[in-house]
């Protein structure tokens, strides 16, 4: 039985176009995670302030949130493969900017404040790109595999994302130690260019939007209306939104690693990757052996476990305990990601995938950046440990409220 499950679960990899997509996504996501890790490390070294890292989150949140709904309209009316390729190539130009700004010549010529502003400006531009690329990546999956194996393709895509996050976070720490910040950005640029080449090997895709001449605002409203009337999808998005907003500890890891645990860039890189290691492990297991029932309740248990782990992390002073807390938090988060991703792929009509994915991106992906800002501000106001304790406690409160207020999500099965 186990062998049969494994064979079915990996069947999307028989599709050549999907294989190109998976490898490209792996390299691109790894590059994105490396940019975030290297930039957080560099900014903290320059400013010794978690608030500066929080401002990076705000710089990316503003364009992602502002453009998400319009991006969904554009995605549904476009060839998704071409849009994805253009977004990747444009992102590579932003990385070129980071290479230039972190060069030894410019660093000597510019003040710390000016370097900060340059980082914020570049990240703002990457936020514009992410508003289009992120939802496109989710929306294109259904055009790469047959419908009967779409669930497995969604699982593999999620697993690829989290595996790439691990290698991105961890390798960034190693590369900073071995090669320095500037050379690490050059390596990241190479990753993105290779990812772009692989996506270029995927043929152009037909446009499935059924209302070609629909106005942008009407198209946007149609996507919003679908999400807000689908109670299960809305509940899953809302639960994850508030969990990430309050429970995300990513923005505070550089400060926690430096001031509490007293570790260098390698220790920081592994700590940053800990949650993704947990996520990848559980997603691989769930890909090979899918959950058969009670997915809604398990999602809520997982998000509650995530909040509890953040509380444990906030109180830890030993590296192994801090690492373990983040590792288990990632396992919990992986369960939530898997269930939410499957709900999206199985319930969204093909002609609305761009818009629904953009609404999801607007609330979920941008919540990571807003969560960074929230963590930076609360750390400034409350202190490092209290801000983490507050975030984990609020996540638990959100789960308790959702348990009683969203019975359809709690009892959902697929």
Poorly predicted runs: 1-5
Mean pLDDT: 82
Examine the secondary-structure arrangement and name the CATH architecture.
Up-down Bundle
User: DSSP strand (E) fraction?
Assistant: under 5%
CATH fold-level assignment: Growth Hormone, Chain: A
Would you report the number of β strands?
0
> What's the helix-strand series?
HHHHHHHHHHHHHHHHH
What's the CATH H-level superfamily name? MFS general substrate transporter like domains
Largest sheet: none
- CATH level-1 class: Mainly Alpha
Radius of gyration: 20 Å
Number of domains: 1
Please tell me what the overall shape is: globular
**Helicity level, as a percent range?**
over 70%
Structural class: mainly alpha
How many helices? The count is 17
Report the end-to-end length measured between terminal Cα atoms: 20 Å
Question: Summary?
Answer:
The protein is mostly helical and 414 residues long. 83% of the residues lie in helices and 0% in strands. Helix 2 (16-47) packs antiparallel against helix 6 (112-139), helix 3 packs parallel to helix 6 and helix 10 packs parallel to helix 13 (295-315).
Write the layout of secondary structure elements.
Layout: H1 2-9, H2 16-47, H3 50-76, H4 80-101, H5 104-109, H6 112-139, H7 150-179, H8 181-200, H9 216-229, H10 231-247, H11 253-260, H12 265-288, H13 295-315, H14 319-347, H15 353-382, H16 384-405, H17 407-410
Helix pairs in contact: 2-3, 2-6, 2-7, 2-8, 3-6, 3-9, 3-15, 4-6, 4-8, 6-15, 7-8, 7-12, 7-14, 10-13, 10-14, 10-15, 10-16, 11-12, 12-14, 13-14, 13-16, 15-16
């Amino acid at each position: 039985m186990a062998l049969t499950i494994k064979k079915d679960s990996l069947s999307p990899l028989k599709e050549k176009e999907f294989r190109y997509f998976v490898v490209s996504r792996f390299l691109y996501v790894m590059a994105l995670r490396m940019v975030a890790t290297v930039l957080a490390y560099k900014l903290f070294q320059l400013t010794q302030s978690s608030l500066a890292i929080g401002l990076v989150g705000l710089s990316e949140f503003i364009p992602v949130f502002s453009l998400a709904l319009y991006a969904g309209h554009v995605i549904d009316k476009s060839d998704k493969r071409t849009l994805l390729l253009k977004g990747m190539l444009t992102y590579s130009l932003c990385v070129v900017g980071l290479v230039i700004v972190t060069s030894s010549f410019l660093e000597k010529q510019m003040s710390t404040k000016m370097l900060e502003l340059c980082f914020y400006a570049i990240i703002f531009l990457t936020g514009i790109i992410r508003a289009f690329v992120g939802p496109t990546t989710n929306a294109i999956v259904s055009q790469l595999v047959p419908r009967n194996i779409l669930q497995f393709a969604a699982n593999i895509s999620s697993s690829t994302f989290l595996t790439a996050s691990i290698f991105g976070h961890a390798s960034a720490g190693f590369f900073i130690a071995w090669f320095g910040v500037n050379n690490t950005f050059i390596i990241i640029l190479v990753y993105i260019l290779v990812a772009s080449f692989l996506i270029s090997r995927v043929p152009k895709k037909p446009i499935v939007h059924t209302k070609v001449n629909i106005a942008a605002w009407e198209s946007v409203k149609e996507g919003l209306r679908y999400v807000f009337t689908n109670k299960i999808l809305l509940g899953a998005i809302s639960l994850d939104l508030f969990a990430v907003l309050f429970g995300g500890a990513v923005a505070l890891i550089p400060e926690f690693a430096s001031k509490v645990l007293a570790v260098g860039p390698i220790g920081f890189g592994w700590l940053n990757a800990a949650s993704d290691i947990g996520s990848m492990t559980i997603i691989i297991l769930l890909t090979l052996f899918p959950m058969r029932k009670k997915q809604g309740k398990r999602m809520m248990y997982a998000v509650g476990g995530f909040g509890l782990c953040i509380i444990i992390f906030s109180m830890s002073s030993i590296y192994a305990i801090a690492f373990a807390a983040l590792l288990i938090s990632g396992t919990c988060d992986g369960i939530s990601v898997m269930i939410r991703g499957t709900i999206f792929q199985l319930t969204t009509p093909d002609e609305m995938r761009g818009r629904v994915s953009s609404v999801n991106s607007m609330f979920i992906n941008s919540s990571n950046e807003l969560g960074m800002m929230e963590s930076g501000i609360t750390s400034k106001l409350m202190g490092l440990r209290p801000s983490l304790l507050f975030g984990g406690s609020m996540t638990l409160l959100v789960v308790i409220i959702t348990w009683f207020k969203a019975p359809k999500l709690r009892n959902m099965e697929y």
